[in-house]
Amino acid sequence: MTAQTPWFFHDDRGHRATAAAPPRRIVAYLQAAASLWDHGLTPAGLFGSLHDGAAPDPLKTGDLPLDGVPYLGAGDALSTEAVLAARPDLLVAVTYDGKSVYGLDPQQAEELAARVPTVALAVGPGHSLVAVRDRFAALAAALGGRGTARTPALDAAEQRLTRAASGAPGIRVLALSPAGRDSVHLARPEAWGDLAELAARGVTTVHPPAGLSANWSTTDWDTAAALQPHLVLADARGNATPAGELAGVPGWEALTARARVLPWNPELPCGPQAHAAFLETVAEALEGVGPDTD
User: Ranges for the Fe/B12 periplasmic-binding domain (predicted)?
Assistant: First the structure.
């Protein structure tokens, strides 16, 4: 009988996850699960965050087939017992601050880490699309997945976006998350890897007013409209206010009268397929907007 090879992986909190053999039953946060699926790995269970509800948000799960993977809950509805009942030999999540396991409260994360090896990969401010993609590819390879960080489609998407940005000088792109009829969260481009990638490719990204949050500036719709973007990336996750509920809001109507609106997923799966699709979508929109005539 051949002995199993011990497995280990250093995550982005500085923790070393270890197991007697390469893990096969993975329970993962929605974004992480979608990322691993893109590398050919099927999780044994999913969990959400405090923003999620009784069913998984299909925007966060990408191409992952939800009918074949149990959803264990989110927030207060996610119990430690439910996670352990899925018999995981690895827990995979993301971290925004390099310390916390996103989607789990600190006590629950500690309880689970005492029972199950845990890996959290950084997706927060200061982490580029390239860095995030490379880290998920490395984890996938360590788990027996494809571990491919680049594809010809991604190369083509990056080149198309660079050309589109060059052909649309002055076109301003604003990313936001609707928070009701009276409030909107405006994304700080430097805090989000996908928005930072747009800027690196020559896209003019709009910077909202300064504030305490590293990720968002929370303000009103009139302030958002006054920024005069030509293209709006609007959070389309289940926790964001749908556009249909903003009808009649003067600031929203002023914003959309000027700008084209595209759905945006701030929790994009961290693989080359999802990244290529995002860059292609923005490139196509820039090609349609054309040069700034202000």
Answer: 68-257
